[in-house]
């Protein structure tokens, strides 16, 4: 079995599938404009065929994203069908999900029973007022907290929280998130703000960088760095007293493109080889035209071979991605 690789010698093992670009939140670092959903969702059977073919090419992990994936009826059944597929090793793929957590408390157990192994919840503040200011949704905080706790009780493991830090909105929340991680028994990962929001308000000044995050957390509790896996995006730290772990995903100040192992499928069935791609590759159209598996496999190999070497955030001549985050999926 020849693995899926690109011309830079990277092996692609992680597939992210966005099952909708609809979302019930309007986070300030993402849906800054007035765009609603722009693309039509595909039937789950289409995503399933795409997943099956990518697995034949060596994909090992599948992450379901959005928009907000739990808004799609049938997502539990989709997890069940994905879990019935096999990787080249003859084992089920690892199936994970990224959600804003608003609908998670009622779905955590059914998702676990269907074969979901891990979940990441996007949460950018640990106080209800600040949470409402960032998501522009009132009364969301309690729902998300319930969702995180339900995920833990259901046995999803790990349960991680991703917090996008945006200067002027939540950089002061770092120590409180440290306390939250220890208290709730979950891993909190801080993410540097990337220019993927709707009306392009990003600037280098809005980024809270790795060094500042570490300095803010050290005021709370000393940290010890933990070695990370080859394709892991997060730098990992545990608290020196052994209670709790955090991570930092620093694509702006410490890019990790050199060992990127990911490709994405958008909710309307386009392959995106990089978050910052300036074009899409229409897999759904190829399938609609009746292409057989061999043709689709060859198409995927050709597209991935041309995967971008890296992003050019903050560089002269940086060209923004052709889609914003809500229309790509994390
Ligand atoms: S910016 Fe593109 S190449 Fe870099 S890690 Fe992200 S998806 Fe991979």
Strand order of the largest sheet: 7-8-9-6-5-4-3-2-1-10-11-12
Name of the CATH class: Alpha Beta
Could you state the CATH homologous superfamily? Aldolase class I
Distance between the ends: 28 Å
Determine Rg (CA atoms, Å). Answer: 19 Å
CATH fold group: TIM Barrel
**What is the 3D shape?**
globular
Could you characterize the architecture of this molecule?
- The protein has helices spanning 44-56, 75-84, 108-114, 128-135, 141-154, 174-184, 210-218, 283-288, 293-305, and strands spanning 14-18, 61-65, 94-99, 118-122, 159-165, 187-192, 223-226, 235-239, 245-249, 262-265, 270-272, 281-282.
- The chain is an alpha/beta fold.
- Helix 1 (44-56) runs parallel beside helix 2 (75-84) and helix 2 packs parallel to helix 3 (108-114).
- The protein is globular.
- It has one domain (14-327): TIM Barrel (Alpha-Beta Barrel).
- A twelve-stranded mixed β-sheet has the order 7-8-9-6-5-4-3-2-1-10-11-12.
- It contains nine helices and twelve strands.
- The longest helix is centred in the middle third of the chain and has 14 residues, at 141-154.
- Bound molecules: iron/sulfur cluster.
- The site of iron/sulfur cluster (SF4) has 10 residues, from loops.
Question: Secondary-structure map with pairings?
Answer:
Blueprint: E1 14-18, H1 44-56, E2 61-65, H2 75-84, E3 94-99, H3 108-114, E4 118-122, H4 128-135, H5 141-154, E5 159-165, H6 174-184, E6 187-192, H7 210-218, E7 223-226, E8 235-239, E9 245-249, E10 262-265, E11 270-272, E12 281-282, H8 283-288, H9 293-305
Parallel strand pairs: 1-2, 1-10, 2-3, 3-4, 4-5, 5-6, 6-9
Antiparallel strand pairs: 7-8, 8-9, 10-11, 11-12
Helix pairs in contact: 1-2, 2-3
The structure holds iron/sulfur cluster (SF4).
